[in-house]
Amino acid sequence: MVNRVVFNRLGRVAVYRILLVTTNYWPEPTGISVYTTDFTESLLAAGYQVKVLTSLPHYPWWNIPEEFRHLGEGETLHRGISVLRVKHFVPSKMNILLRIRFEASLWWNLRRTSRKLIKGEFDLVIACIPTVAAGIIGQKISKNLDVLFGLIVQDLSGAGAKQAGLRGGAVISRIAQFVEVKVLKGADSLVVISPAMREIVKKSRVPEKRITQIANYSAKQISIREKSFARAKFDWPLDQFVVIHTGNIGAKQDLENVVRAAEAVSNHPQIKFYLVGHGNQEFRLKTLCKGKKNISVLPAVSEEEYSLLLAAADLLLVNERVSQMEMSLPSKLTSYLFSGRPVIAAVPRDGATWNLLEGVAELVEAGNPKLLAQAIIDLSQNNEKRIELADKGLEFARINLGADIGRKKYLDWVNGLIESKRG
């Protein structure tokens, strides 16, 4: 691959250098990290030099797992990419005070470390939010280095704090929105991942010409596997009707709704729910599930086992809080649709997830466990409908959510920034 180049002050050719500021990166196994990691590796493959300024690996566990304790503050190399990490406070649970302390700790330590960056070291700075700190620091670095600033909007903390149901969320929402608007307006160009997010950004008076919409794509390699083989690997009987939810176990997933749905199908003993993952609501969910025979909370599986986990399902579940109208799209959606398994989504009507999945998944209103339970019962008795949903989901994913499609759109966006600099 030919390197992307610019001319330095001496007129010599130099590789184009990009700094990504994000608080979610490898080895975090889910969420935004999946996309930021794939993004940088795509840039490297296209011939750019890339450096990442990021946090300690903390999501979705909300602690630093023992296996990643060696990835402390300092610089390491991962797959040819320089990764500079900063230490920061990691809350084991989330409320308004801890969220403020978390953001402040990230801001302070990212700022402290970024002071070591020197003018001429990078040609472009890109930040990925929702973490407000990443946006602020990315913008600050771009100004200090006198380079263009690109912004990837995977989520918005202002809307998120209010919609996720955190106590005191309205207060933190106003603070975060005030700061976020400044960051959005300060970007030379930005990416949004859904039409709903585009509308929010436009309301912040960001010029339309600066906004590029790129849907999240399947950054994880998902292979379609036989259900019988997958069930044997997890030691689950074939006569169970298995409903699986994967990913973050947090406030915005509102998985208590799934627990209530499991209670409502207790007279259908063949139906079994598995909530697979980690998050700040994990302990509470385990407590709610204790003593129930048809629902379990299980730890996340490895990336190598993830395709098998999806293959073991009869239904793949997405669940969101009723207020989750304008947030990011769950990263698991692309993997779900590429797995060849049918998807059911209990999400707010006309929200971002509902709009994406309409016509390719079974949709029910969020926050109604009886409605969710009945939809699952109906699908458990209708194999033809499940096959139809699986086929529609896979076709939609192949047309719209392929990795090559998404990566090309991001590279085109970066190239557009480069050309605007040259112009």
Q: How many angstroms does the end-to-end distance come to?
A: 24 Å
Describe the global form: globular
In the CATH hierarchy, the third-tier topology of the largest domain is known as Rossmann fold
Describe the strand arrangement of the main beta sheet, using strand numbers: 5-6-4-3-7-8-9-10
Beta-strand content: 15-25%
Which architecture of the largest domain would the CATH scheme give at its second level?
A: 3-Layer(aba) Sandwich
What is the CATH domain class of the largest domain?
A: Alpha Beta
Question: Poorly predicted ranges (pLDDT <50, ≥5 residues)?
Answer: 6-13
Summed up, the helix count is 15
Quick overview:
The chain has 423 residues and is α/β, with parallel strands linked by helices.
Describe the model.
42% of the residues lie in helices and 18% in strands. By secondary structure, the protein is an alpha/beta fold. It has 2 domains: 5-217 and 402-422, Glycogen Phosphorylase B (Rossmann fold, 3-Layer(aba) Sandwich); 227-400, 3-Layer(aba) Sandwich (Rossmann fold), CATH 3.40.50.2000. Strands 5-6-4-3-7-8-9-10 form an 8-stranded mixed sheet, sandwiched between helices. Strands 13-12-11-14-15-16 form a 6-stranded parallel sheet, sandwiched between helices. Strands 1-2 form a two-stranded antiparallel sheet. Helix 3 (132-145) runs parallel beside helix 5, helix 4 (157-163) runs antiparallel to helix 5 and helix 7 packs across helix 10. The longest helix has 20 residues, at 403-422. It starts with a strand and ends with a helix.
